[in-house]
Specification:
Pfam families: Phage_holin_4_1. Keywords: Membrane, Transmembrane, Transmembrane helix. The chain crosses the membrane at residues 63-85. Helix content is 78%, strand content 0%. It has helices spanning 3-23, 29-51, 57-86, 94-118, 124-133, 148-152, 155-184.
Length: 185
């Protein structure tokens, strides 16, 4: 699947979800559901990172920044909704509902992807679809690649080596200070 096809599938799912939620009379709840899905996606991403030993604060911060950007887009959409209402056009909350639905679908796919990488049983048809979504148009994987050397490093041994190096550096500095005091006398 090329990128525009993935975007088209997400958009269609967002429109269907938005229309269904609109018909059922749930308007503001879509934003609450989106925030809840964002929370679940963040937690499942942290669990995936911890389990695959690829937990990275930079990637986590980038994810949080993206989630904040989604909230900014929702605020902008709410502003547009407000503008249309004051112009006499009753949208019935359909604009913000559609945008929220798009991001709900996006977060849901991300949660499903994280759960699949955690090893949870995912139906084969969904798993194959997720594999296709994780490829860029040239067919290359977009998965996070972890340096294999990091798996071989024992953190406890590494911490002991760092502590030992700190003790050696402190003793060398103390020796330099004593030598300087001896030269001054």
């Amino acid at each position: 699947m090329v990128r525009w096809e993935v975007f088209a599938v997400k958009s269609i799912l967002a429109l269907v979800t938005g229309f269904t939620v609109y018909i059922s009379g749930v308007i503001n709840e879509a934003t609450v559901i989106l925030v809840f899905f964002m929370f679940l996606d963040f937690i499942s991403g942290m669990l995936r990172g911890w389990l695959t030993k690829s937990l990275n604060s930079t990637i986590g911060l980038a994810g949080l920044i993206k989630k904040f950007a989604v909230i900014v887009i929702l605020a902008m959409t709410a502003g547009l909704e407000y503008f249309f209402m004051h112009m006499g056009q009753d949208t019935g909350g359909l604009i913000i509902l559609t945008v929220s639905s798009f991001f709900i679908v996006n977060e849901g796919l991300s949660i499903l992807e994280n759960c699949a990488q955690l090893g949870l049983p995912i139906p084969p048809i969904l798993y194959n679809s997720l594999e296709k979504l994780n490829r860029d148009p040239s067919g290359k994987e977009q998965a996070i690649i972890r340096d294999p050397l990091l798996d071989k490093i024992d953190k406890a041994v590494l911490l002991k080596e760092v502590k030992q190096n700190q003790v050696e550096i402190a003793s060398q500095e103390l020796k330099k200070e004593e030598d300087q005091k001896g030269d001054d006398v």
